[in-house]
Amino acid sequence: MKQVWRHLLFAHWPVHEADLLPYIPPGLKLQQWEGRPWISVSPFWVDPLRLRGIPPVPFTRRFLELNVRTYTEYHGKPGVLFLTLEASNPLAVIAARTLAHLPYHHAKMHAQFVDHSIQYRSTRHASDRQKMEFIGYYRPLSDSIFHAGPGTLTHWLTERYCLFTTDSKGHLYSGEIHHLPWPLQEAELEIKNNTLTKSLGLEHDREPSVLTFTERLDVLFWPIKKL
Description:
- This protein is mainly beta.
- 11% of the residues lie in helices and 51% in strands.
- It has a 7-stranded mixed β-barrel.
- The longest helix is centred in the middle third of the chain and has 11 residues, at 90-100.
- The chain starts with a strand and ends with a strand.
- This is DUF2071 domain-containing protein.
C-alpha cells in the first residue's frame, strides 16, 4: 500500500512508564529515552491511499487521521506501537482493523486552514461519559526544512520503519514501512482541548516537549506478518 501524508504535526511528550506498561503486549519491550518512555500525537491528512495492483477503492482515497503511538522493540528491532488511530473514514477503519489488526476507530473529524494555521478537531465518544477529543491549531514556523541527526531525541522519535500490533487472540504482528528521512520544520501548536491522551490514562505536561511539522511524506507499507 502507498499513502501520502500531508500537513502532519508531530507532538511528543515523555510519560510515566507505569501508564504505558498495560498497553505493551508480551514479546515487546517498551523503549525509553534517558529513562523515560515517550508518546507522540500526530494529526494529518491521508491523500491519497492506494493499494498495490488494484484501482483506487471508492471513498477511501482521502481522509483525516490522528494517531497516538509509543516506542517499542522486538528482539532489539525498534518500532512503533499505536495506542489508538482515529480516522474520519469508516471504510478505512474497518479495513485496517480487519486486515492489519490495528486499533483504528471512527471519529468525527474536521480540519481547515485558518489564518495560516491548521485548525484540527477529532472527537469520539468511547462511552456515555468519556469523550476522546483533540482540538488544536498548528502551523510551521518557517519554510526551512531539516532532517533529524542520528543520536538525537528527534531522530529516535521519528525515524522508525516498523510497526507492531496484536490481534484479538494476542498474537504479535509486525509491518515494514519505507519512506525517505522525515522532512521536518519547526512548528507551534495551540491546544484547545486534549482529552484523547487523558482518556488513555496518560499523564503529561500540557505543552509538548518536541514539536515538528511535515508538509508531505510518501510512505510505502508492506503486508503485516505474524511474529
